[in-house]
Amino acid sequence: MDKTESLEVFYREKLGILPSEIFKKIGHFNVFTMEDYTGPKPAYPMPYSRKDYYKIALIRGAHRVEYADHTYEVKHNMLMFANPLIPYNWTPENLQPTGAFCVFTEDYMKGFGNIKDYPLYQPAGTPILDITDEEAGPVMDLFNRMLKEIASEYTYKYDLLRSQVFEIIHAGLKLRPACITEDVPGFNAGQRIASLFHELLDRQFPIESTVQKMQLKTPAEFADQLNVHINHLNRVLKETTGKTTTQLIAARIASEARALLKHTDWNISEIAWCLGFEDTSNFVKFFKKQSETTPHRFRS
After folding, report:
1. How far apart are CA 41 and CA 38, in angstroms?
2. CATH code at 141?
3. In terms of pTM, does the model score above 0.70?
4. Are 85 and 199 within one domain?
5. Spatial contact of 128 and 177, defined as CB atoms under 8 Å apart
6. pLDDT tens for residues 27-82?
7. Which residues make beta-bridge pairs with 49?
8. 33: closest CA among 130, 146, 133?
């Protein structure tokens, strides 16, 4: 897996420019057409890596997308909501794709709502939407509004662009309401604990080096970190997700294991150690229970 791509790398290597100083002060936002980005000789597939910024993209045509340990085959048009926690890459069927995308940092959105609360940005959400040409038209109109706004001299344009980011997020949610598994209730104390648990869990991933190791693995360790009793944590997670603390941790570790087996050449013992297993045989047993196959068979 390639190292995390920063915004500076994105601008320098993909566009040949650097972000302006004003962007660094307010938190970064920018929007591009795919023609701006790909240039005359686009390079595909993209490296499988994590980015340190958010990205929303509408790219016309069929695609193959690898996101975490999942592979999506997009038949029509791809609407993608990528976040800094999850590594991904994509390859279009047409090597001169059309469409548009925006990139922004968490600092840019700070104080204007938490996009991580939306299902499209949650671990169990569906970040890749396959939408028809008819559905893609209004989304492209939103991007065109962004492109026009960012080119304007309006003093408060970056505030307006924030609202347009949320418009596209809501457009995605309306296009695929099935990805919202349940209504979002009022944010109570239990939900706050559940949210903090998921944040602690996700912050440990992706594993990008054989010297990187999970620090929190057991329910007791998470409970201690959150300063709650383990029984309370388990009850809260069971009520909000339908799963126990152990099940949620195991599912996330298994997901990372599949990604590492698929996208790195690390040996099994290295992957086991990174995921908190001192004994490789215990990792093999765990993986077989979670994935119904052995690590070697999954990789092959």
Report:
1. 7
2. 2.60.120
3. no
4. no
5. no
6. 688 898 988 765 545 555 555 556 778 899 999 888 888 876 678 888 999 999 98
7. 2, 88
8. 146
